[in-house]
Amino acid sequence: MLKRLQTRLRVFLIIFFMAVITLILCFSFRNTWQARQTADITYIQRMASLIIYQLEADPESPDELLSNYEREMNVYSILEDNTGHVLFQSDPDTLTDLDTLGKIAKDNIEIQSPTAQTNSSPVTDQGGYGEIAGNNHDRYYVIPASISTKSGNWYSLVLFYEQPSMGALLLRQAPSYIVVWLLAFICIFFVSRFLLCRAFKPTERVLQSQKDFVAAASHELKSPLAVIMANVENIQNQELTEPQVQNHLNVIDAECIRMSRLVRDMVLLASSDTDQWTVQIQEVNIDTLLITLYEAYEPVCREKNIHLHLNLGEESYPQLHTDQERLFQILSIFLDNAVSYSQKNCSIEIQTRRTARELAFLVIDHGHGIAEQDKPFIFDRFYCADKSRTDKSHFGLGLSIAKELARILAGKIGFEDTCGGGATFFLTLPIK
């Protein structure tokens, strides 16, 4: 139990801290993306200033100048003269062609036409950057400019710079993020394991000493109980003249039987705590198992005026490979509880329920049922719904033993209210 708790805590801590690490990496990528956008904006603005400065000097071949920037700096451009004639237009390998980008830029960004300035003094003017979207989810930075050269020429220039997509940036950053994530996972895994082992070690020592005591006490009690019961039986076989003595012997015998049952249950639970239970997997004949169970409890039910019914399915049962003795023990615990908490003239039913992958065994009683406040604790050790413990035949260990047995059989155990009153306990086993 403590190991399972330790494992759950370790899994919880790993999930929690890895979620924090993942969030940190997400924020880091977001900051990287914003920094990249800022750097790209600064870059295109610097390139625009440099290109404008060189065009103002009235170079002999503006198209060659702009072509170099396109080839080496990935800055694309459209250059027009004062008549609106295109002097140069880049031909980039982008998702959206430059003609379309130029039209989108004119529709979304104020671009001054050279013909609009023919009657005024030409002045070089660089506009601020803008952002436009292409036809294929591609995005671009755009900077318009009006350029007055030394020779008196006047140009209209529009510069484009493609924004890198977030997916492309993520692909470039992914290897480093994955390495950081894996290193963090390995560190958290081993650190959490080490710290939890250190934290649980004192508790494990205390629980282990308690388990050793219970196991030792249980085994040590078996021998004196056997001796007492044997001697009581010998005395009972002799002729006793005092009926009161016989009554006392009967009480001693009954209490010894109760104590023997308690010791047996404690030994079983001690074996479960130390993982010493053995499982003998074999093919189980379900019809034979249920009939044997019915024949074992039918006399007990008849003696208490309780009607026991066995409902076998009309279809043949699937092959079930499990420990037949452990399965019989779980169903016996269910029936013991059903008999104990059923009133006279009530009925108890043994049924099965089958799905494609599972087979469920049900023991249905029509007694007074389980109170709501008792349901969360019904499988706890030494828990009794009867707080006064007037029923001395139960110690509150049966259902906890059934739960442990179901666990080692890879099954699921539970209960539900019976329609009309009572409780239905079920065991579900996988069909292999």
Q: Give a short account of the largest sheet.
A: 6 strands, antiparallel
Percent strand equals 15-25%
Tally the structural domains: 3
Instruction: Indicate the radius of gyration in whole angstroms.
Output: 43 Å
**In CATH, what is the homologous superfamily of the largest domain?**
PAS domain
- Mean pLDDT equals 83
What is the number of E strands?
13
* Helix proportion: 40-55%
Using the 3D structure, state the CATH architecture of the largest domain. Answer: 2-Layer Sandwich
Determine the N-to-C terminus distance: 27 Å
Q: What is the H/E string? A: HHEEHEEEEHHEHEEHEEHEE
Structural class: alpha+beta
pLDDT under 50 segments (min length 5)?
A: none
Shape summary:
elongated
Pfam family, one: HATPase_c
InterPro entries: BphY/WalK/GraS-like, HATPase_C_sf, HATPase_dom, His_kinase_dom, HisK_dim/P_dom, HisK_dim/P_sf, Sig_transdc_His_kin-like_C
Transmembrane segments: 12-30, 174-196
Catalytic activity: ATP + protein L-histidine = ADP + protein N-phospho-L-histidine
Descriptive notes:
This protein has eight helices and 13 strands. It is α+β, with helices and mostly antiparallel strands. The chain folds into three domains: 2-164, Beta-Lactamase (2-Layer Sandwich), CATH 3.30.450; 169-273, Orthogonal Bundle (Helix Hairpins); 282-430, Histidine kinase-like ATPase, C-terminal domain (Heat Shock Protein 90, 2-Layer Sandwich), CATH 3.30.565. The strands form three sheets. Strands 1, 2, 3, 4, 5 and 6 form a six-stranded antiparallel beta sheet that branches. Strands 8-10-11-13-12 form a five-stranded mixed beta sheet. A hairpin with a 5-residue loop joins strand 12 (412-417) and strand 13. Helix 1 (2-56) packs antiparallel against helix 2. InterPro entries: BphY/WalK/GraS-like, HATPase_C_sf, HATPase_dom, His_kinase_dom, HisK_dim/P_dom, HisK_dim/P_sf, Sig_transdc_His_kin-like_C. It is found in: Membrane. Its EC number is 2.7.13.3. It comes from Catenibacillus scindens. Residues 216-432 form the Histidine kinase domain.
